[in-house]
Amino acid sequence: MEFNDLTGDERTDLQDQIRGLAWAFARRAAGFGGASPYDRALLRRADGQRVAETADLTPDDRRNMYLARLRVLGIMQSELDRAADLEAYCAGAEGANFRELGDAWGISRQGARKRWSSLRAGPDAGDRVRLTYGDGSGCEGTWEDTPDGPALRLDDGTLRAHVTGQVCREVIERGAGDA
After folding, report:
1. Is 105 within 8 Å of 96 (Cβ atoms)?
2. Which of 78, 101, 99 is nearest to 89 (CA)?
């Protein structure tokens, strides 16, 4: 599967949304309640000017704000890791192999195998695999990773490329490189 990276604008939007989400949860953790520290600082300003920067906050409010957001970002990281593990498990259950998981996560096949070592993903190169198609027909062979994507090398030497989609893949025997 081919993945398109986020554009610079999309990344900026994602970062803004992550910061906003972290701030929404951190307000409570920092003791600011439903109001932001910007509102608290505004109440302290006698001239009534709008507070535009954290420099207008008290040092205690700034420290508490950053510490609360850092704590929430740490929790978010943990939850994102948990969500990634779940997605990897689901993709593996649907037949994705460690190369495909690595491509999706932006790491090598070996990196994916290390990260999700407890996950038994779909077939890897060298595995003996049985394919069953929607019409009931099937074949067996050795799984290969080719430049054009995964394929099955049949016992007669033929390379079968149609190994994804409406196909049931069953690993019959793990290859020697999968210890």
Report:
1. no
2. 101
Neighbours of 125 (CB within 10 A): 18
Helix (H, G, I), strand (E, B) or coil at 53: coil
Q: Sorting pLDDT into bands at 50, 70 and 90, what band is 145?
A: confident
The pLDDT of residue 42: 44
Helix (H, G, I), strand (E, B) or coil at 152: strand
Confidence check: pLDDT of 10 > 50: yes
CA 33 to chain centre: 32
- Do 145 and 105 lie in one domain? The reply is no
Q: Is residue 74 part of a domain?
A: yes
Q: Answer yes or no: pTM beyond 0.85.
A: no
**Reading across the β-sheet that carries 167-173, which strands appear in turn?**
159-160, 149-154, 138-146, 128-133, 167-173
**Does residue 65 form part of some domain?**
yes
pLDDT at 131: 85
pLDDT tens digits for range 126-140: 989 888 877 778 889
- Whether residue 121 lies inside any domain: the answer is no
Residues 167, 132: contact at Cβ < 8 Å? yes
